[in-house]
Amino acid sequence: MSLEGQNIDKKSLRIIMGKTGDWPELAKDCVCFANAHGGRLLIGIEDGDSEPLAEQRIPAGLIEKVIARIGELTVNVTIAVQSRRSETTGGEYLEITVLRSASPSSTTDGRFYLRVGDACKPLVGEDVQRLLEERSAQPWETLTSLD
Q1: Which helix (H) or strand (E) holds 27?
Q2: Residues with Cβ within 8 Å of residue 102, at least 6 apart in sequence
Q3: Mean pLDDT for the stretch of residues 78-85
Q4: Angle between the 62-73 and 23-35 helix axes, to the nearest 10 degrees?
Q5: Are 76 and 95 a contacting pair, CB within 8 Å?
């Protein structure tokens, strides 16, 4: 497994399970990646660990629930969710792939965030204006591939 950084983050399965679930926090992380370069969230791997627990299983229907809740809590965020099994421990975890957004992404309550290093930073004032301006332009990578 990769270490946390600019394009990858690990979260406990508790962030989306039971009474301790924190869906707004997961939505914020998705917005961070969408406004940066995209990235992956590994749900079910604790911070400091490199693999999920051997006995950990992903409940049926959880993938659909994640897709639905992130869709309800974010604007302009595109994700793909897959269940993965660790080759080492046999434990299961979710991999959420967040695509870079061509438009500014936010939470449905109007908050903007950006992934900087291994942290999610709120954007305010001039930072939001800069994000809005740069998202309306075509990234040079796209322009070169389109000729």
Answers
A1: helix 23-35
A2: 135
A3: 96
A4: 70
A5: no
For residue range 22-37, list pLDDT tens digits in order.
999 999 999 999 999 9
Q: Of 36, 24, 22, 18, which is closest to residue 131 (Cα–Cα)?
A: 36
> According to the model, what pLDDT value does residue 65 have?
95
DSSP string for 86-105: -TTT--EEEEEEEPPPSS--
DSSP 8-state class, residue 122: E
pTM of the model: 0.86
Q: Give the span between the Cα atoms of 122 and 58, in whole angstroms.
A: 31
Token pair 């926090």 is found at 25
Distance of CA 88 to the CA centre of its chain: 24
